[in-house]
């Protein structure tokens, strides 16, 4: 009944039905099996390893190489998917190349638990660190440029407000004479657009 037991475990674990069976014997010989099929209560419970296609696929990959379902689920639950993906892909490549892997399930477990992924060389690590330092310096420079631009804009606004306060504080006759002279200067000055943008209005 080993084959039936395996099928029962698979169906009970992965589908929305469950079944049990009993042997009907004639003497010492099993003459028939009586199956009892019920709705699987586990199917109603949320299960990220069943409901997430990527995680379900990883569990399936591990069991394909001889790992028990419980062990495969435990590994997928406790390790990052990228690591499990790398290990199963690497093992598949080894087997396709006819490399001898005596215990594929054991190899997978160790490769995942000890993280056998190739580590970057010291040179590559230094390059990555240098790039990150350069990006950080660029971000800081951009932030400083934004702060400088905001500071200049605030300074210009304060200058304009101070000038307008001074002009408004003058007696009417002096103010009109000053405004008239200033307009004449704007029309004749070579930097009139710059002056106009800052002080007119």
TrEMBL record:
The record, for InterPro entries, names: WH-like_DNA-bd_sf, WH_DNA-bd_sf
The region annotated as signal peptide is none
Which regions are flagged for Basic and acidic residues bias? 129-145
Region (Disordered) location: 125-154
Q: What is this protein called?
A: RepB family plasmid replication initiator protein
Source organism of the structure:
Magnetospirillum sulfuroxidans
């Amino acid at each position: 009944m080993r084959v039936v037991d395996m099928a029962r475990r698979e169906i009970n674990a992965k589908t929305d039905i469950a079944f049990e069976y009993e042997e009907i014997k004639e003497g010492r010989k099993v003459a028939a099996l009586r199956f009892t099929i019920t709705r699987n209560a586990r199917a109603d419970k949320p299960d990220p390893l069943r409901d997430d296609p990527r995680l379900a696929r990883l569990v399936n990959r591990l069991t394909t190489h001889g790992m028990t379902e419980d062990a495969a689920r435990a590994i997928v639950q406790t390790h990052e998917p990228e690591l499990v993906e790398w290990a199963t892909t690497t093992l598949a490549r080894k087997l396709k190349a006819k490399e001898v892997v005596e215990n594929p399930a054991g190899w997978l477990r160790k490769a995942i638990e000890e993280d056998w992924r190739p580590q970057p060389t010291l040179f590559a690590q230094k390059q990555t660190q240098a790039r990150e330092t350069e990006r950080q310096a660029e971000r800081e420079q951009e932030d400083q440029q934004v702060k400088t631009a905001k500071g200049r804009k605030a300074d210009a606004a304060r200058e304009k407000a101070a000038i307008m306060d001074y002009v408004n504080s003058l007696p009417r006759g002096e103010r009109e004479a000053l405004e008239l002279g200033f307009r004449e200067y704007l029309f004749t000055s070579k930097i009139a657009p710059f002056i106009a943008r800052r002080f007119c209005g």
